[in-house]
Every structure is written in C-alpha cells, then in structure tokens.
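We give the chain.
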Amino acid sequence: MHKNTFTLEAIGTVRIEDQHYFIDLNPKYIPALEGVEGFSHMNILWWCHNFDEESSRAIVDMDKPYKAAPDKLGVFATRSPIRPNPIALTACQVINIDHHKGSIQLAYIDADNGTPVLDMKPYQPSVDRIKDVSVPHWCSHWPEYYEDSATFDWGSEFTFND
C-alpha cells in the first residue's frame, strides 16, 4: 500500500472570549473572504490538536462512547477527536465577518480556544443537505436538526459523563 504524507498549514485559529466564538485568519488568507457575505453558515475543518499524538492516532475502535451504542464502535462511527487523522468538521452559523481584521464571529464551534483551522467552505444546501438520511437505531432519537441540538440533553448520551 502506498503511504501518502501531506503538509497542512493552518489558515487561522479558533478564539473563544466570554462565550463568543471567532475564527481569526492568518493575514495572507484574509483575501479568501471575498464573496463570503450572504452565506449564513460555513463548514469549518479544524485540527484536533489536543489529540494529535501517535497513541491516539493508533486507536481504530473504542468502547462505546454513547450509552445506547453497541459495546464497541470503530472511530469512523463516532465524532470522536481520537482518530487516525484528527480532523473535525463543524457546520457553524456566521454572525459577523470583519474583513479588515480577518475575523469571523460564529454562533458556536465545538473546538477549543487556539484550535488550528484547516479550511472553511460555505454551507450550500444543494451539496451539503441530504433529503433522506438514515442513522443507526442507537442514535435515532438524537435531534434531527443542528439548531435543536442546543436544547438536547447531550450529557445523558455519553458514557464519559457517568
């Protein structure tokens, strides 16, 4: 098997201040914001830098992280940051864009302060929204929409909260 290696450069970082969420772009990427206005949401690809270690990257299955899940799950059946390549994807609502500073305010992102951002793409319903979706029975009671996740009792779903 041919092994590929890649070099990635963060385009910016996540900044969290007083429960406000921002992406601060590296100055050379500020021109890439041209035309972003009008998109209510962006798909943010970010690096789970707190789990970028050889031991975490070697884990391919785990004890169930969700109470209703099977006893073992492969990492590709989870949204865990522990995976072969610690890349995360979050669809985020855009609150404001400051072109001069290269800062994007988000309603929320599930990343830590200082998290490297790898890329951003506009959320486009014609390519990002799927009409007929199915999920395994163990997570079928989870909210159907992102917006409803804010009021869902996620704490009762995870085994690590026990």
User: Anything to note?
Assistant: Strands lie at 12-17, 20-25, 41-47, 61-63, 72-74, 87-98, 103-106, 116-122. The chain has two helices and eight strands. The helical segments are 54-57, 125-128. Residues 5 and 117 are 19 Å apart (CA to CA).
